[in-house]
TrEMBL record:
This is Carbon-nitrogen hydrolase family protein. Gene3D superfamilies: Carbon-nitrogen hydrolase. Keywords: Hydrolase. SUPFAM superfamilies: Carbon-nitrogen hydrolase (SSF56317).
Length: 277
């Protein structure tokens, strides 16, 4: 498939107030639609960004009862646009932990795909920040590619960005556009955000769309911002900086084939033996 679509990243500063987060997303979405965008993407933790266990439990709902999903489904239908809710926490029936879930809605508001974040952010950073995402969220176990008519979309979330094999798998499954909704920390964002997103685009010959959280959140966490849209040859088409807002870029899907023809690395994979211990 090939065609051109105007895509948007909605850069947010989500907190623990569901109504406020939905209102911010809806306002940014209307601004994106006014700029001609027909594919809108929200960041990770768009529904709420909360790490305190006592607050998190009260915010989690099953997928069908999640307010951000319902609001963005209605918005997609109202404006006739596709909307990717980058992620929000979803209560599970069979696990005390939640899923960090991304949901894609088509222009009719119907859910087209769901993806649960596979790689959990369990790290201790040099500045003293510590995260144990696996204590609150159950990791997903499958890669997801979705068809949007104008092209095929490969889904991922935030820390997945550091695992190149996932994106190669998505590209081999037909993905032309990769989404990386994120809530990157400031120190890791400053060091790695731009280079990793450009690398994933170059390695796969895909467009990369990475809507991000930004600023200081009510729980004290700080996120890096800089939502990016990257072309298949690695050029940054749009960078949102550090303020909440909207960026848009036109994705010409013919550029995917062009990049892959120039360096056909996806056709050069080989099975090799692991090194001896």
């Amino acid at each position: 498939m090939s065609g051109t679509v105007r895509a948007a990243c909605l850069q947010m500063t989500s907190g623990d107030d569901l109504d406020a987060n939905i209102a911010e997303a809806a306002d940014l979405a209307r601004r994106a639609v006014d700029q001609g965008a027909t594919f809108l993407t929200l960041p990770e933790n768009a529904g709420f960004l909360e790490s305190r266990p006592e607050r998190l439990a009260g915010l989690l709902k099953p997928e069908d009862g999640t307010p951000m999903f319902a609001a963005m489904s209605a918005l997609a239908r109202q404006h006739g646009v596709a909307v990717l809710v980058g992620s929000t926490g979803v209560k599970l029936a069979d696990d005390a932990r939640a899923a960090n879930r991304s949901v894609l809605f088509g222009p009719d508001g119907v859910r087209l795909a769901t993806y649960d974040k596979i790689h959990m952010f369990d790290v201790d950073l040099p500045d003293g920040e510590s995260y144990r995402e696996s204590a609150r969220y159950r990791p997903g176990d499958r890669a997801v590619v979705a068809d949007l008519g104008w092209g095929r979309l490969g889904l991922s979330i935030c820390y997945d960005l550091r695992f190149a094999y996932l994106y190669r798998m998505l590209a081999h499954a037909g993905a032309q556009v990769l989404t990386v909704p994120s809530a990157f920390t400031v120190p890791t964002g400053e060091a790695h955000w731009h280079v990793l997103l450009r690398a994933r685009a170059i390695e796969t010959g895909c467009f990369v769309i990475a809507p991000a959280q930004t600023g200081t959140h009510p729980n004290g966490r700080r996120t890096y911002g800089h939502s990016l849209i990257v072309a298949p040859w690695g050029e940054v088409l749009a960078d949102a900086g550090t303020e909440p807002g909207v960026i848009v870029a036109d994705l010409d899907l013919a550029r995917v084939a062009e990049a892959r023809a120039r360096v056909p690395a996806l056709t050069h994979d080989r099975k090799i033996a692991a090194p001896k211990a």
